[in-house]
Amino acid sequence: MPAGGFSSVTPAGVEFEAKITPIVIITCIMAATGGLMFGYDVGVSGGVTSMPDFLEKFFPVVYRKTRNPGIDGNYCKYDNQGLQLFTSSLYLAGLTATFFASYTTRRLGRRLTMLIAGFFFIVGVVLNAAAQDLAMLIIGRILLGCGVGFANQAVPLFLSEIAPTRIRGGLNILFQLNVTIGILFANLVNYGTAKITGGWGWRLSLGLAGIPALLLTVGALLVVDSPNSLIERGRLDEGKAVLRKIRGTDKIEPEFLELVEASRIAKEVKHPFRNLLKRRNRPQLVIAVALQIFQQFTGINAIMFYAPVLFNTLGFGNDASLYSAVITGAVNVLSTVVSIYSVDKVGRRVLLLEAGVQMFISQVIIAIILAFKVKDHSDDLHKGFAILVVVLICTFVSAFAWSWGPLGWLIPSETFPLETRSAGQSVTVSVNLLFTFVIAQAFLSMLCHFKYGIFLFFSGWVLIMSIFTLFLIPETKNIPIEEMTERVWKQHWFWKRFMDDDEVAAVTNGDIAKKNGHANGFDPTSRL
Hints:
The protein is mainly alpha-helical. It has a single domain (22-223, 269-499), classed as Growth Hormone, Chain: A (Up-down Bundle). Helices cover 73% and strands 0% of the residues. It is globular, with a radius of gyration of 23 Å.
């Protein structure tokens, strides 16, 4: 989810000399804790909002409904705009912070942006853990959201720039993997703190977010900024020294010169957002925006935010609901690891289409079970059916985690051309956070009104996105980024009609290159 900036890819697939040095591994692990923080924030809210002590203090109306289901029925007991705002405010703040983070990432550097994110995280955690009223709680969540906005811009970009080319893809998915580990960690913490008597378990759940927050802050203090960032800001000697240090060799002159040239070309792009709207860039823009909307309308975040609440609604006891959330969190982590190994072997389209079938079937079966077995005032879901629902939700989560989860970010990052790369990624991040906010704010109300139909609603969207994938998303596996136009867009049955004016653009770019005495044969903003 990177912001403005650039990173280099070598011409014709030639790799620069680079060792996988200890400093690169340590730097990437520390930076990726930004993903851990984001995942923890996603996972912790659902568990905390199902804790009676937390509800009694901040949401007494919801607390009374959970104590007496006869008031509003199973499906509506958590329907409360304030409760949803507690979860969704983080994503609205993240959306706003994204625009500021784009500026700081470019002007102040990746390292300082990660430090700002760490500061927001720490202050937000303190306010949340010490909250005395709803206002203090929401302000804490908003500050955490600001941290998410800054971290999600800087960390993936930093990782792609520090890593040697041959392990860049794997290290980029390290951020996504850390998000899933953060969710699992939050679910385990909630499972433990729910057993604490005395009414302060929820404070510990929210306060333990301080661990990844401190790791990110300390990491940002200790790591060096990326050579790309230093060169972009005119600090050439410092950038060269850092490049020599992280590559573990003195033979860095070719890569250094290419980074300098990439910086010069990136600065020539005066109006990236205007370029983004040109006809020839429409396929990439449509696909990037559609992927973010579809990613949220799979229903995944609804399940991840509110897993314990959802399982409670279905008649699980509080203990069982938290335990089930831990299981889904573990499946999420393992399935993300699967995507690291399979994405470059079987391809993007195969993963998306297979996952579409798997998610659709599991959601429809869940809806059928709930339609017959969970009524508004039924006391319990039969044990056999309860286990089947957990298995089906795990089936759904696993399909998402090896497809729409990582690929929703990967495909936009490898399809936007140089002149619109930073603008395209900013739009991608913004659309994602906007629809994450919409789902987080609306889900519990939708659950109340749709009841079991909520799963049919999301399965309908899964069907639509699978049809979209089948006809409109091209395969980008093993295709160099600089060859996307020729080998992908101009060959696609539908998108090729938008490439009419590409020759004009190529001539213009050729003239610019000649004027500057440089033939641009590579894409200096590739992330993978």
